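Researcher: Structure prediction, please.
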Amino acid sequence: MTLASPVLSPEQTAFLVRQRVARLATADAEGRPHAVPVCFAHAPGAVYIALDEKPKDVPPNRLKRVLNILENPNVTLVADRYVEDWSLLAFVMVRGRAGLLQPGALEHAAAVRLLRGKYHQYERMKIEENPVIAVRVEKATSWGALDEPETSAQPVLGAIRGRRSVRRYLPKEVPDGAVERVLEGARWAPSPHGRQPWRFAVVTKEETKVRLADAMGEEWRSNLQMDGQDAGIVEKRLEGSRRRLLDAPVLILLCLYLEDLDVYPDPDRQENETTMAVQSLGAAAQNALLAAHGQGLDAGWMCAPLFCTQKVVEALGLDPKLVPHALLTLGYAEGDPPKRRGRRPLDELVVYRD
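Model: Predicted structure follows.
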């Protein structure tokens, strides 16, 4: 459990941690003020600010905020939320004394880890080579609706509810950048031990789609026949599934990859390790679906590859260690899809509350 700050209340801490940008106010020895927006990370009793590689006219150690801190370590940092609904306005202001953590110090390394954990952009910046500003929090004040969500519209929940499953697409190309952003969303899914036990295959060429549909078709037919369905219904369902593959501008195949997982001597724990990987694959799929929805794209989820894994691997020439689990179709809906199936009320799904 993370220790609470001795200065900030739990409500103030939670608000501060959620914010992505703050304003740092410094002053020189003569009291002349200077304020800049900053990215920051919070730890109990401290706020860390990177001196990063965003374009600047002077080296990091010559920045006005740094020179001011060296002359006068007293600083103020404000993180605030402004929305048009003024009932949701809020801010947290911390005052304290600032200093510079130099590369090589243990706290400097810990601060860099926190900053990179909060801002993925820092993964590509050499912030470990520059000092980090450390603000020792001495006083905190706050105002407003600290515990309220960012907006009353709850955009994430709105996206979850607004996402729909699409089967028929317009013959409209999906930009490569949009596909990359969908994959980027999937990449940030939670995973056991951070191992990311999944790999993605992207299919856009017509001939590849045909090869994949042909490879999967016979297996589909066999499965449907085993269900005792009428031959005419079998062929109709096969054609529908085939059209879903061929008409979608983009297919994203989600594969399970177990080679990097922990290995246990007992079968029960090993089976649980695999189950965690499958759960993580589902989280990656949901991230991808929401990332698509957020860009105005439509998508559908097909589990058919799970029933013919070897056929799919052979059709695409994939590593045999990959286990295909699902296909996401991606594009622009031909029209509004049928109404989404209803969801059970929470009272039926939540089986325990203490």
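Model: The first strand starts at residue 22 and ends at 27.
Researcher: Thanks, that helps.
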